[in-house]
Amino acid sequence: MLAGEPVRASSPQGRFTDGARLLDDLVLTDIDAHGKHLFYRFADDVLLHVHLGLFGRFMTHRSAAPEPRGAIRLRMVGHDGTVDLRGPTACEIIDADQESRLLGRLGPDPLRADADPEQAWSRISRSRREIGALLMDQSVIAGVGNVYRAEALHVMGIHPAREARSLGREEFDALWDTVGRMLTDGERAGRIITVTAEDAGMPRSRIPRGERTYVYRQAQCRSCGGPVTSWELAGRRAWACTGCQR
DNA sequence: AAGAATGTTATGTA
DNA sequence: CTACATAACATTCT
After folding, report:
1. Residue A102 contacts strand B, CB under 7 A
2. Domain residue spans of chain A
3. d(CA A174, CA A179)
4. CATH of domain A117-241
5. What are the average pLDDT values for consecutive 10-residue runs of chain A, which has 246 residues?
């Protein structure tokens, strides 16, 4: 899907999550993202909000698209392909008001040029909650999920259970950079690989699934080989190396 | 074949 | 008001 392209967007089975059925012959003018929230902007101020949640997945058909099977929540047909969406948390047409409410509760997104790290710092530097909980809080920083929480804190040598306000300004700055680098890298690669080619001992493109992270879902730290512990933090499983992270 | 998983939101409790 | 827990919801894979 390209900006400027006429697009026929519809919900062949199921529905948009707000009940909209069919949007015909729209012109897609822009696609952008704030954290994990995606915005498909069409001409005439039609705005489609998509959030993939845990299970949402896009599938692209470059040649003839098959008949929709099962619950396709959204199908967008352009002239060079068709995009289907399954399993999103959100797939809804929203107005400017809903959009600003949504953006209002999101913290800065390190991937965006307009991101203001000071907003994240003012929350983190004041909070007695665990840094691992704050990193996952989309109102503090937008875009970090469970994998990047584990991996960014590992690279920083920071234990997820550390009190957020115990981080120094320099630590926060380095954490912000680390998260930004990891997100940029993931966006470019289209998948999450946080280990370096050196640490993996092979080209990054060949690292097997399951060996792409230092501590996330690992038993041993891929950096030092020491034991990795895991426990529940802010509703999700957290991982940390007992040696590298304090 | 139950259970876990790259997540958010609404609601309840302290 | 804040922090934290829980449930609901989406789908695929082991």
Report:
1. yes
2. 6-104, 117-241
3. 9
4. 1.10.8.50
5. 77 64 81 93 91 92 86 88 90 89 93 94 91 94 94 96 93 96 93 93 90 94 94 91 93
